[in-house]
Amino acid sequence: MNVPPGSAVRGTGRDVETMTATVERITANTIAPAAGTPRDVETTGQKATRYVFAGLRMALGWTFLWAFLDKMFGLGHGTAAKNAWINGGSPTKGFLTFGAAGPFKGLYHDIAGAAWADWLFMMGLAAIGVALLLGIGMRVAAVTGGILLVMMWTAVLPPENNPFMDDHLIYAGLLAALALVGAGNTLGLGRAWATLPIVQRLPWLK
């Protein structure tokens, strides 16, 4: 078969151009899908989930902060005014002396009312509460809050209404979940917090 001179070269060139254009289209669609595609659109369920977790974060944060305020000022809900910390009362003495039970009872009796225990307990309540309400330092809040809650669980073993499970363990699990899903980014300052230089250098502060 006679092939006109140069036709094979021209045909090959057109084939290469066609293949190149096809590859470019495929690559563009894979790496940068057009706006409005399903991957770019948040579903109603996903949005609702974000706000539910944000609400749970703030509710749990208020639980911690309220415990701090009540023990600090003796607001009369769990702590009488005369037993408030600012009035010389001890946030740990009453509960650890009369409420502790189970295998760790002796340990908690020994530290009940100690100044260092009062300070650690109160600062923990305040810091965890503020972090959760603002949506910052979620990882640190989850770890420290989880430790505090587990310690409170060990102080009342076995729980009153269950062989081993109570709300302290459930709250500890919820804290971990809030940190894992980035609950501080919705209705919180989590995104702004993550841009701070010190947080970028130390990601565990997120």
From TrEMBL:
Q: Does the keyword Transmembrane helix apply?
A: yes
Asked if Membrane is a keyword of the record, the answer is yes
The residue ranges crossing the membrane are 51-69, 111-133, 140-157, 169-194
Give UniProt keywords alphabetically: Membrane, Transmembrane, Transmembrane helix
> What name goes with this protein?
Thiosulfate dehydrogenase [quinone] large subunit
Which source organism does the UniProt entry give?
Micromonospora inositola
The uppermost taxa in this organism's lineage are: Bacteria, Bacillati, Actinomycetota, Actinomycetes, Micromonosporales
